[in-house]
Amino acid sequence: MESYFSVAMLGVILPLTVLLYQLVPPRVRPYVLLAASCVFYASVSGVLIAFVLLSAVSIWLVGLALSSLDRQQAAARAAAADSDARRAVKRRYRRYRRGAVTVGVAVNIGLLAVLRYLPHFVPAGGVLDISGIGVPMGISFYSLQAVSYVVDVYRGGVQAERNPLRLALFLSFFPQVMEGPISRYGQVGTSLSAGRPITVDGLWSGSVRIMWGLVKKMVVADRVNVLVKTVFSDHAAYDGGVIALAATLYTLQLYCDFSGTMDFAVGAGRIFGVTMPENFRQPFASRTAAEFWQRWHISLGAWFRDYVFYPVSLSAPVKRVTGAARRVLGNRVGPLAASGIALGCVWLGNGIWHGAGSQYLLFGLYYFVLIWLGGFAGLAGDAICGRMGVSRSGAAWRAWQRVRTLAVVVVGELIFRASSAGDALAMLGRLVGGFTFASAVDGTVLGLGMDAADFALVAVAILVLAAVGRARESGVHPLARLCPAPYAGRAAVVMTLFLVAIVFGAYGENYQPVDPMYAQF
Amino acid sequence: MIQRNKGLPLPLRYALRTVAAVAVFLVVLAVLSHVVMPKNNQREFGQIDARANGVMGEREGSVDVLFLGDSEAFSSFSPLQLWGDRGITSYVSATAAQRLCYTRTLLARALKRQTPRVVVLETNCTFARFSMADAARRLLKDVFPVFEYHDRWKILTAEDFLSPVRYTWADELKGFRLRRALEAKPADTQGYMEPTDELTPMADLNRAYLEQISQMCKNAGARLVLVSTPSTKNWNMARHNRIAQVADELDVDYIDLNSGSDKVEIDWQQDTYDAGDHLNLRGAQKVTRAIGSILAGRYGVGDHRGDEAFSDWDEAHGRYVKRLSEL
To answer: Which domain holds residue A374?
Structure first.
């Protein structure tokens, strides 16, 4: 599968869509976006586009049903003779509404489960073997969007949409359908269907953002690909030092590939006047694993928070457990202990969402344990440092927390990238038990697909990314700052970024560009 | 000037600025292309596919026959044997798994310095599929070599910024490859060239590129000849039928060395090193003898032996014979 940074997308689909979008009347523009999205989707997944449309139809019908039930409930309550009758009406319609939203969630999660996971568990050639159908592009992303829509309509957060084509565009909008971000209808629905004109500012800032993503993907993510593939595919042949290097480079690769793709989604959105939610916020500045997940793949974390963590936490059985834990363990430790139930559901779901492989379950378990136990450790640390009078707000402590979290993240990504949980554990074992710098000293690392110049360029890229991240942490976006510049300045920025990608991009004879990494999830 | 521009309508002003920005960008790309291009056509200078591009290092106008194609071509045609047998000067501009979009590029490069009388296109590559994106990428590399040689930023020297691009190197074997020359792995000939009326489909893009290649040869005064070298794995009657049809439509000659009157008697037990996919040295010698006879007989390609201007070919042939004797 080609990434968004392909000749076809950057040279044909996006420019033609921009041109056509601007030429047609505003009310037709959303349909231009929908047509472009369908063409793009069909060009990658062919007839499997039917599943996206099926999801769109399902949530459209459920939204209409919920809206209709709301009206019926209001009428029935108005006609009710007394408060008992009104309560009965409320109970009855709550049941109906829950039934409707359950159908909406079940259809979309069911399609995801059947198309994405069933082939992993049924024997090939059997009656239930549907692997021949294939997996629709981005099903893990648009299914969560579909669920968020029906739940938001149920909760009253958004109005039910009457036009099914708008929902089809919401699910299939081409800059985001492959890898997200997992947006909510309340965030993008209005702007997607507004048909706003393309502005010079939007075009420039969108183009700059896309070029920034292109540089991250081509200069860094593609450059480290050969080394990462070489080591992870034959990890038993390498010592702990090489495995640590590969895991670190993979973390960098995943960040540059995924956040680069998000730069495309946000940038293309800006061109069409659609503000896509940000999916990354300087994740490597995190001081804890929990904070990392508020900065990395933000839209997925927010989805699990809103549609799994809170509902589970606020469910009657868990509330009872929390109350009991509070009584036994106290007001601070009790709720923390009880939060393990909801947290466990989140991380089990997060792991499974990434795939059916055992490494993803281990990945989910790893973060569950870290974050849950991290809460207890934080309480204990507060108490110990408080008694000893040690400050936990100094620069040195913050730096230590960041280094520690980075190590935690690299280990997590090692598990994530491994072929199985067994491989991940074997690699971790060698990382701890067989760590040595021998491969770096004898030059073995230079024979794994990256030469000295490649390493030097990656080091420069890390420094640039760190500087940009630091500026953004301070509230300054260097790229956005350049956008109010005169035309020549903006053009120079876009062209310079493009030229950097052309000259320093890892493409051609000696490289294997990485496939869009999150498109497989 | 600035005042006048401010009087222009806004869209026109933006259009003019965009044209200016694109023009600047293209100039920068052209400059970068010059900087990163290898300054000579040797592998040591960073030349990609140096052997196939060695034809650019041959003396201008000295090559009478140009062979194009994929590994079938560089395994089957030996220019130095052709020189020894017939005094024909030739070069094999072939690369592994060559696509026609690259064949077109290699032909264009060769035609800049050579005026071949005959261009032989080995037909296996005419079925190798490639996409519009592949073709676009190839075109981009041809127009702006920075897309092909960008990775030379790692080894740039002052010379890269200051020196012109020169082509002075040619492959010792003129593009022929002595791969596993004396090895033999018998081929399974069951079904090989069995008669059929079927036609293997040829992609529209491949057909369009064949047409372009044919036109380029006509414009250069060269005769394009489609040749299918013997291969039990790659060739069959359905492919033969398709190429015969296309050759007819393009009004070019087609010679199939697998069947008919031009068939080369290949010993499929001895003359292939990989079970019928490619020919070994024995097989290549048979094919080269046959193609030499065809080039001299049917196309009147001249004999340059004894011509002082081509004495370097005699020397190269001497080294070739010595090298074969040492195998």
So the answer is: 297-417
